[in-house]
Description:
Layout: H1 7-11, H2 25-46, H3 79-114, H4 117-131, H5 135-146, H6 150-176, H7 180-187, H8 192-229, H9 240-246, H10 256-283
Helix pairs in contact: 2-3, 2-10, 3-4, 3-6, 3-8, 3-10, 4-6, 5-6, 5-8, 6-8, 7-8, 8-9, 8-10, 9-10
Amino acid sequence: xxxxxxxxxxxxxxxxxxxxxxxxxxxxxxxxxxxxxxxxxxxxxxxxxxxxxxxxxxxxxxxxxxxxxxxxxxxxxxxxxxxxxxxxxxxxxxxxxxxxxxxxxxxxxxxxxxxxxxxxxxxxxxxxxxxxxxxxxxxxxxxxxxxxxxxxxxxxxxxxxxxxxxxxxxxxxxxxxxxxxxxxxxxxxxxxxxxxxxxxxxxxxxxxxxxxxxxxxxxxxxxxxxxxxxxxxxxxxxxxxxxxxxxxxxxxxxxxxxxxxxxxxxxxxxxxxxxxxxxxxxxxxxxxxxx
Length: 291
């Protein structure tokens, strides 16, 4: 007599018969942190305790209080309001940079995986050449030519992230092209564009989501580094990286000015990295046999 099917066994399988992986701690914690950062950015559109760009010389270097929750900086600006507004800048740069990388890198990876082997190898060698330029270095080069701005930082970070998407998606595409349903579609005379759109893209979408989350963490760090060096978001728009740069001369006398933006950057990067690890654990088919 066969064992009865328990409710937990049914719940662990999806409609396609594949076992669904449970939500991991990394996915849960990362999702909560990312939701917190996103909530801060959305809140800054409708409310901040003070104008984050208002210079008030009479309120310079105020300690944290009920009026100024995180105190004020050397220009008398409210630090908490700057943290809120800086989250908006950071997420905006991340969204656009990852969007640029995905829009270019995903089709490039699919074409490299579906095309002839020599063509795919040629594209990947060009991809490796671009990979030799780190996001920070490429952004500095762009800033030197076009001037420091948020747009230049977004485009440079996005271009530097294209190789990561292209390489990952090409590997996923090569696996999908070996499946029986793709072979059957090709035998039925379906064209490459239809196969790529109907079969390849849906099956590599989980890889895109994972890479986007990891790429977002890289974009957050790159934007902060560029702003710290003076090549990122120009004043008076608040930026966590520039808040760190402005706090350097007061590290010994007022370290809180560096602590608050530094913690904000670290927590945001940690959240997106944990989210990426959790999504990889949940969606990566290579991990299925090891669970």
